[in-house]
């Protein structure tokens, strides 16, 4: 069964009030004769065995939780739950249950949850509150059982929470905690752990406010140290009071703000370290705890943001040269945490937050910090910079363009970022990858603004290519001065791959800016030196860069490639790769196939004229033979423009079948004089099927004779041109054992059954090379004539 909507996990509640996973399967509903009613069926996805068969009882209380859970009780002590993979599946089964019980599917509970057994346990359920046992050491076990039994039912949780609030019960429990610790009553401490954990799962803000108050929170954490499942108690209070130190990098004068920071840290510690990891059913019960932390952080950010004296002092010390390194590191870490807190703000509040930081001079401060030697400080500054770029890249771009008018290129903020990327000492270049992502965001035209009086794209890209691009490409240019990379270690290769990734992005998105830069600085030739790298990923990055350029089908790029013979490194790499079938082989063939399919005439002619001898024996794909065919067709059209125009006329006329057109075509046919035929024009009227075969083949014979004569003349002209000193590629092709020329095996291998060169292979237009040239040409012309006759 592949329907993920119906995919569920089946859970049962054990004696310890813990949910046991009974297996994963697919749920359905249907009438079961044995149970005499509509039932829920779950079959295991592994072997199809029956995991659950439960009749939908009209009086059973079903409860839907968290959009993907359905919980109910089959008997007094047998609770079941289905956890759905998708909300849609949960909704579908919930509608079936509600349909059987005659309930509206919009409800989350189908029945009144109070049954007789509950009435026996709670003396007066109709009262607004709930009478709790007296808070005594001797009754802790009873209290723990009451709390645990109340958790499955929302109504019972509500009444228990109200009772705890109204009677000030939590403070009484914490007083008993001190007594138990003094007496070393481990059993009582274990009960208190269960009680306090249960109170957390009641999910009530009013209770949290009591528990997290200054006078109670450390005692609450103390209760949670005595987990009965652990052999020894934890030392959470010792860590919070002795190990964890609160540092005021700038003195905080507001006592309320200081108390809020302490409280948030401790509650976050409880959530992350003290409370056990919640199960799938308990997770939603702690939603109020998450909200408590969230709103505390919002409040802290707001109070700090409004304290102008505090922020002014912060940025003043950050940029002051007299500030010692340890102090500056603390300031930067504080600012980083401050920005991280801001991610919890609503969009409008976050706008105000970053605007405040911008007005305070956060970008000039970051520029100063990034120019320092301390790696930890620079790392934290980079994280802060990433928050700013992700929030508002236009703000960062505006700043760097303004500072360019006053400062040298070396100290520009964006150039500092590039230098840190280049100089990353991490062997895995983790920081460089992060910085490259930020640079990509900054140079991405998709997030640049266009207004009535200026275009950010034009201004910023002009600035970037003038002031920054030379810094980015410096490692590439320094490493490609020879025929192979001067440094080819792994870390250098990784860095160059990152730079190439960004340059490839620029080729795709920056049009004329990057085009001018590549052509004027001869960047592509330098990039292709990396094809000789021993690291395959770097060679493939260089190839991808060239492929992206060719994919633009821009004649400026094409002329640059042809003038500099920039297919030479690619062909070399292809031949050196030999007969290995790998990513390099496939990527190079795909590039030539693109040129063939897109019929890029200038590149087709360049490749065939200069590299055909090296590639003609590659017959396991038809790409190169297809390129040769394209080239020959192109030459034929150039040499016989009249033939090309006549073919165009015939192609256009094939689809016009009215009577008047037929008459015009016949008249054109009979008026064609023999001289036109002599010039290679084999014109056949599409509608005339009564012509004699000899009449048709006669002009074809004449055409073939003239074509052979022309080919011999062309060879003589080419020979003379080569002798007259035409520029040619400067490399010598080195053939490996798998690529040696074998003229005799070409035709035989191409006709083997199932061989790559056999007729009908993908990408093999007529499988050139499997028959002689004159035969293939005759077959091509005959096929064209046949098509015309059938039309």
UniProtKB/TrEMBL annotation:
<dbReference type="InterPro" id="IPR011989">
    <property type="entry name" value="ARM-like"/>
</dbReference>
<dbReference type="InterPro" id="IPR016024">
    <property type="entry name" value="ARM-type_fold"/>
</dbReference>
<dbReference type="GO" id="GO:0005654">
    <property type="term" value="C:nucleoplasm"/>
</dbReference>
<feature type="compositionally biased region" description="Low complexity">
    <location>
        <begin position="767"/>
        <end position="776"/>
    </location>
</feature>
<feature type="domain" description="PP4R3 EVH1-like">
    <location>
        <begin position="5"/>
        <end position="101"/>
    </location>
</feature>
<dbReference type="InterPro" id="IPR055236">
    <property type="entry name" value="EVH1_PP4R3"/>
</dbReference>
<dbReference type="GO" id="GO:0030289">
    <property type="term" value="C:protein phosphatase 4 complex"/>
</dbReference>
<dbReference type="GO" id="GO:0072542">
    <property type="term" value="F:protein phosphatase activator activity"/>
</dbReference>
<dbReference type="Pfam" id="PF22972">
    <property type="entry name" value="EVH1_PP4R3"/>
</dbReference>
<feature type="domain" description="Serine/threonine-protein phosphatase 4 regulatory subunit 3-like central">
    <location>
        <begin position="142"/>
        <end position="633"/>
    </location>
</feature>
<feature type="compositionally biased region" description="Acidic residues">
    <location>
        <begin position="671"/>
        <end position="681"/>
    </location>
</feature>
<dbReference type="GO" id="GO:0006974">
    <property type="term" value="P:DNA damage response"/>
</dbReference>
<dbReference type="InterPro" id="IPR006887">
    <property type="entry name" value="P4R3-like_central_dom"/>
</dbReference>
<protein>
    <recommendedName>
        <fullName>SMEK homolog 1</fullName>
    </recommendedName>
</protein>
<dbReference type="InterPro" id="IPR011993">
    <property type="entry name" value="PH-like_dom_sf"/>
</dbReference>
<feature type="region of interest" description="Disordered">
    <location>
        <begin position="728"/>
        <end position="777"/>
    </location>
</feature>
<dbReference type="InterPro" id="IPR051137">
    <property type="entry name" value="PP4R3-like"/>
</dbReference>
<comment type="similarity">
    <text>Belongs to the SMEK family.</text>
</comment>
<feature type="compositionally biased region" description="Polar residues">
    <location>
        <begin position="728"/>
        <end position="746"/>
    </location>
</feature>
<feature type="region of interest" description="Disordered">
    <location>
        <begin position="671"/>
        <end position="698"/>
    </location>
</feature>
<dbReference type="Pfam" id="PF04802">
    <property type="entry name" value="PP4R3"/>
</dbReference>
